[in-house]
Amino acid sequence: MKKIGILRGMEDSFPEGLIAHINAEYSGVVAEFVEVGAVSQDGFSTYDVILDRISHEVPFYRSYLKWAALKGTYIVNNPFWWSADDKFIDNVIAERVGVAVPKTVILPHKQHPPNTEGKSFRNLQSPLHWQEVFDYIGFPAFLKPHDGGGWRGVTKVNTPEELFRAYDESGTDCMMLQEAIEFTEYYRCYGVGQKHVHIMKYNPGAAHHERYSAVPQEPIRPEMYAKLERDVLALCRALGYDLNTVELAVRDGVPYAIDFMNPAPDGDYHSVTAPNYDWIVRTMGAFLVEKAMEDRPHTTFTANGALEPFGGFSLDRAKAQATDALETAREKAAGIADRLGDDVAEAVEQVKKAAAKGRKKVQEVVADVVADAPAKPKRAPRAKKTD
Questions:
Q1: pTM of the full structure
Q2: What is the DSSP string of 119-183?
Q3: Which of 179, 202, 230 finishes a domain?
Q4: Residue 25 domain-assigned?
Q5: Is there a contact between 235 and 191 (Cβ–Cβ < 8 Å)?
Q6: How far apart are CA 183 and CA 251, in angstroms?
């Protein structure tokens, strides 16, 4: 039985609905909430796939997911990729893959981050060349954390004075200033598995519970739909995200990617509305099951940063090691026969001994691999859908 784990925070409807959907619609796989305690570096992960909804807020969870990934669990989203990202660098990546983004600058911390003091910033230009920033970005603009989410700490500024007030209140956050795109259309798009896209009309200025519903629902023009789909897939593939939302503001017919580092996007039934909720539950469920059914060897990093198989149970590993043992036995037998030449009787006896050793080696290999396999987990009770 393949096992899918959901690592969640405060949300309810999306993870509970996802578990209920998978357990009701698919056989050979069980979905449940992850349960984790103290983690041993020598242990094995009991999950084939984990969907991560909270590790960006909990460092213990983030380290656990990296450990699970190294033990062979497929993590959505990859914690190594996700940890490397910030919104400023992702803007640079977006430009490299042909996606339009607003002009953006990153700014130093207004206050010293923890465990630093004035001497820590002796490389920092002082004072900043603010006029160059204003000339490049213009007004209005948005001041936002370079690693934030959920509109945390985002302020629209129309003048240098408004910018300085907001910047003074930013504390130890690393902020970026971004050109405001005066848009005629705005979309929020789900990307799943780097191949599925769901485009939703969206109003970022509406009340949170109305951002999807308080928008005219006319059909999207085919040429615009194609542009949006292309940009969403390009961004998700470049960032390595299997679950993401991409927000695009359209100015003069060009979609600008405004916000696209959302690896744990909102999926709540009450905010995204029923049709969008149904799509993300069905599509995400199918993708998680697809990844769970794959046969992946456990992996580790080599000296040059590549990944290679290591330890733990894997059917492919057992087959490969058994095949190697048999091939070694055959080579030894052939070598013995060549050396003995016409002494057929002795050659046959030596070949029998070599073959017996080969069979024993195969048995030992398979026994070792099976011994390494984690105990088969009991099937968890199915969660009931609450929405």
A1: 0.75
A2: GGGTTS-SS--HHHHHHHH-SSEEEEETT--TTTT-EEESSHHHHHHHHHT-TT--EEEEE----
A3: 179
A4: no
A5: yes
A6: 5
Q: What is the spatial distance between Cα 366 and Cα 97, in angstroms, rounded to a whole number?
A: 46
Start-to-end Cα distance in the chain: 27
Alpha-carbon span 250 to 74, nearest angstrom: 35
Taking only the tens of pLDDT, the chain with its 387 residues reads 999 999 999 999 999 999 999 999 999 999 999 999 999 999 999 999 999 999 999 999 999 999 999 999 999 999 998 888 899 999 999 999 999 999 999 999 999 999 999 999 999 998 999 999 999 999 999 999 988 766 677 999 999 999 999 999 999 999 999 999 999 999 999 999 999 999 999 998 888 888 888 787 789 999 999 999 999 999 999 999 999 999 999 999 999 999 999 999 999 999 999 999 999 999 999 999 999 999 876 554 444 444 444 333 444 544 555 566 566 666 666 665 665 555 656 666 666 676 677 666 666 655 665 555 555 444 444 444 444
Question: Which H or E run includes 255?
Answer: strand 254-259
Classify residue 333: in a domain, yes or no: yes
Measured CA angle at 188 (ends 49, 211), to 5 deg: 115
71: nearest Cα among 296, 304, 319, 318: 296
On whether both 161 and 191 belong to a single domain, the answer is: no
Q: Locate all alpha helices (DSSP H) within the chain, ordered by sequence.
A: 13-25, 59-70, 79-83, 87-96, 130-137, 160-168, 222-239, 269-272, 274-293, 315-340, 344-372
- Evaluate whether residue 257 is within a structural domain: yes
Contact 261, 238 (CB under 8 A): no
Region at 37 (left for phi over 0; alpha for psi -120 to 50; beta for the rest): beta
User: Under DSSP, is residue 216 helix (H, G, I), strand (E, B) or coil?
Assistant: coil
Containing 24, the helix (H) or strand (E) segment is helix 13-25
Residue 236 belongs to domain with CATH number: 3.30.470.20
Residue ending a domain, among 179, 212, 245, is 179
Residue 127's CATH number: 3.30.1490.20
140: Cβ–Cβ under 8 A, 6 or more apart, which residues? 156, 157, 158, 180
* Domain count across the chain: 3
Bridge partner list, 31 = 4
Spatial contact of 365 and 313, defined as CB atoms under 8 Å apart: no
Range of the domain at 195: 185-262
